[in-house]
Every structure is written in structure tokens, then in C-alpha cells.
Amino acid sequence: MKKYKLIKEYPNSPRLHTEIINRVSTLPNHYYKIDDTTLGIEVVFSPQLFPDYFEEIVEKDYEILSFKNIQSNVLILLHENGKYCCKESTKYDGTGVNTVNHCLNSKYLKIHSIKRLSDSEIFNIDDDFINNFNSISKIDNFKIVANTIDIQYYCRDIYSCTLKDAKKVKQPLFTTVDSVDIFKGDIYYELITPEFHNKTCVWNILPNKTRSNINYDQEGNKKNGRLWFSTKEKAEEYIKFNKPEYSLNDFITVTKKVTHYPTETVVNNIISELTKLKK
């Protein structure tokens, strides 16, 4: 169903900017105000009768979040008032000053990032994405086509992928100790090591589920005695090879059993090396 907006008043017309819609397909010239849910009052005017007074409302599936100045590489950002401005501007006061049409018509500005409104997915120039051939490409350009945007990319030649068909390449939140990439919503296992401040928790394995609003600092957590693994079994394997469980007497006993000639010197050397490991 097409929608229109009144852009110029005429005798007996509705108010300027009134939006109308055709809700009955069998009556193509019968339009109703969009806020009229009863269909009780038929609008006697239509875009077909007054084409110069109405403008079709094109519902876009995207929002331009930023432009980039191709000369200075400065980003021009979208602000809450619906206009664009860069922080470097002398007019910057936290709000935008330029309209989207001004930016689009500037030969120095290029669309840098957009948001797909249907799912709030954000795409940026140089991002990797999955194209319409289900392969990974790098975004080279955005091209406005009617009410949507085509994402352009190179593969020997320039190709286009409609915005609705584009898929983001997922970026892992972190990589576990056992070299597995972890994404939003994945389950991982946290192992508490002796460096942790609460010694009663040492060698505990805690299951967790990732969330997108947390900064996963792998190196910082490692220093504070918390290691992340992809499975509980991998965490248990780490414990097996790293948790101290045997006394010096245990090693001496085993050494005497497996060594044909366990001289006093051999035993003393083993004790010396083991002692070094504990320091």
C-alpha cells in the first residue's frame, strides 16, 4: 500500500504534511488519513487527482550514521537532532548542523557507515561481510537505490549486494586458552587459578554465557587468576597438568621404582630441580 504526504495545500485540502494511505486495493483512488483507523471517513482527494501536491513516502530500511570527508578523513556523525556534524567543527555544540541531503550532495563526503533498520545491524566501509554469493568480501562503497542501499565490493570487478541480503561477519568476543573463538551467546568455562585473590575458589570451574555488553579482557583476567576455556573438559585437562598434587617423597618413591640405578646424586638432583619449580 502506497503512502503519500501533502507537500502543498490547495482549496479544501487537508493540512500541510498530512499523510494518507490507500487501504482498499479495489478502490485505487480512495485514500484515508493514516491516523484514521476506522475507514469511516473517505478522503475525497488523492495523489492521482493532485500529483503536484503530494509526495510519495518512501520507507527506508537504512539510516546513514556517518559520512567521511575524502580529503581530511574526518568523520561527519549523525546526532540526535537528525543532522550531521564533526567534533572538529568550530560550530560543534553536541548537535548536528548539516542535513542528510547536504551531505549526500557534497562532492567531498562519502557514506562511511549505515544501520539496517530492520535488525539494527551496522555496516562500515572496509568491514568484512558475507555477500549475495555467500562469500566474504570487504565493503568498498554504499550506493543509494530507491528506498534501500546497495553494498558495493570488489572481486576482480565491482559488484553490488542489496542491504537486505548482506550479512555481518561475526567478530569473536575473545579467544579461549585452548584457541577457540567465543561469540555472543556462547557458553565458556572460567577456571580459577592460584593467582586469584580468594584462595578458597582456586581450581574451581565456573560455566558462563557471553553477553555483548561486557568487555572481555582476556589478558587482564589471566593476570588476576581467571582463565577461559571452551569446554569443561579442556579446563580439567589444564588442571591435570598444572595443579600441584604430589610431594617430594612421592617423586623420590617413583624415581626409585622406574630408575634402575637411583643413586643419591640422582635423587638429590631431582629434589633440587623440583624445589626450583616452586619458587
Q: How does this structure look, described?
A:
With 279 residues, this protein is an alpha+beta fold. The protein folds into four domains: 1-57; 62-168, no CATH class; 174-242, no CATH class; 248-278, no CATH class. 18% of the residues lie in helices and 30% in strands. It is built from five helices and 20 strands. The chain has helices spanning 100-105, 218-223, 232-242, 248-258, 264-278, and strands at 3-6, 19-21, 32-33, 54-56, 62-69, 75-78, 84-85, 109-116, 121-124, 128-130, 136-138, 141-145, 148-155, 157-162, 167-168, 174-175, 181-182, 187-192, 205-209, 226-229. A five-stranded antiparallel sheet has the order 7-6-5-8-9. A four-stranded antiparallel sheet has the order 3-2-1-4, with no helix packed on it. Helix 4 runs antiparallel to helix 5 (264-278). The radius of gyration is 33 Å and the shape is elongated.
Describe the SSE topology.
Elements: E1 3-6, E2 19-21, E3 32-33, E4 54-56, E5 62-69, E6 75-78, E7 84-85, H1 100-105, E8 109-116, E9 121-124, E10 128-130, E11 136-138, E12 141-145, E13 148-155, E14 157-162, E15 167-168, E16 174-175, E17 181-182, E18 187-192, E19 205-209, H2 218-223, E20 226-229, H3 232-242, H4 248-258, H5 264-278
Antiparallel strand pairs: 1-2, 1-4, 2-3, 5-6, 5-8, 6-7, 8-9, 10-11, 10-15, 12-13, 13-14, 16-17, 18-19, 18-20
Primary descriptors:
279 residues; alpha+beta; 4 domains; four-stranded antiparallel β-sheet; 20 strands; elongated
